[in-house]
Design goal:
about 300 residues; alpha+beta; 6-stranded antiparallel β-barrel; two-stranded antiparallel sheet; 10 helices; 12 strands; about 25% strand; HerA-like; HerA_central; P-loop_NTPase
Length: about 300
């Protein structure tokens, strides 16, 4: 390649300008439906600390709207950043101004969890079944990620006679309703590290289920948190709000004072009502000879 041709290429690259779209957060650079895990990765256009975990975003394509929540924020591995860190150069040149042919060399990434895929149509054009689609395809590379609109939130989180507001979305002050009739018809769980409030959250869920009368509840309360008053923090339990609907049983002996306070009764099982099938079903650690012995005794 001659020197003149090389100059022409450099001039063409310098004339390329990136136009910023209003509300744009970034562009898709990776997507995977799983297994083992499903994720859409967004290259963040500006500062990553403008975003928060749990914040709702929409990936918009010509065909679909991917409704997502931010589940992880991180920086890409960058050898140049490792070389610049702890040197005087970091104060001389802000990372946002370090530009290359591919844009800024220093950028943040957002891993998104896709909850719903909607056709890119108006609300009147949508059919009900189209609202039920899960994460079964991926957006094209460079698809735009943007903030969710209030109309899209209202479309996704529809209210029913069995729904109540359960909280707000980060970055979007909108009370999210949960349909508790639909909730109890599906298996679900609450997971998290110790001390983040799983018991309190589950207690609130149970209260709404009792309020709407959509299911019966059987709770094995190992820490005494769901009765009249929680032994752990003194907060009100289920029996405080629905005393007539709650029956409490305890394995330990009950004195008259406790029985008067929460109406608890002593729970026991007569030996004559236990058969080998009950024991086998709950004792998966038994070996085969032990199981055969139980059957022979019966």
């Amino acid at each position: 390649m001659t020197e003149e041709e090389n100059k022409e290429i450099k001039i063409e690259l310098e004339e390329i300008e990136q136009t910023e779209e209003a509300g744009k957060i970034g562009e898709v650079c990776y997507a995977d439906t799983g297994p083992p895990s499903s994720v859409i990765t967004l290259k963040i256009q500006h500062r990553p600390d403008d975003l928060r975990l749990g914040q709702p975003l929409v990936i918009e394509t010509e065909k679909y709207l991917y409704y997502t929540l931010i589940m992880r924020l991180h920086h890409a591995t960058n050898e140049l950043a490792e070389k610049f860190a702890n040197t005087p150069f970091t104060n001389l040149l802000p990372p946002a101004q370090v530009e290359g042919v591919r844009g800024s060399e220093f950028y943040g990434l957002a891993d998104l969890s896709c909850l719903r895929i909607l056709p890119n149509k108006t609300q009147k054009e949508l059919e009900y079944q189209e609202l039920m689609r899960g994460f079964d395809t991926i957006p094209p590379i460079f698809s735009k990620g943007r903030e969710v609109t209030k109309d899209e939130i209202n479309l996704i989180y529809k209210k029913s006679e069995f729904s109540d507001a359960f909280g707000t979305l980060r970055g979007f002050e909108y009370e999210v309703p949960i349909d508790f009739k639909s909730l109890v018809e599906k298996p679900y769980g609450l997971f998290g590290r110790t001390g983040i409030g799983k018991s309190i959250l589950n207690k609130i869920l149970c209260l709404f289920i009792l309020k709407h009368q959509v299911s019966q509840l059987l709770l094995f309360d190992m820490q005494g948190e769901y009765g009249l008053v929680s032994r752990a923090d003194g907060t009100k339990g289920l029996a405080h709000y629905f005393f007539e609907k709650i029956q409490i049983y305890r394995l330990s002996e009950i004195d008259q004072k406790d029985k008067t306070a929460d109406g608890a009764e002593h729970f026991f099982i007569y030996k004559d009502t236990i058969n080998s099938g009950d024991i086998i079903a709950s004792a998966q650690s038994l070996n085969e000879p032990s199981i055969n012995t139980l059957i022979q005794i019966e």
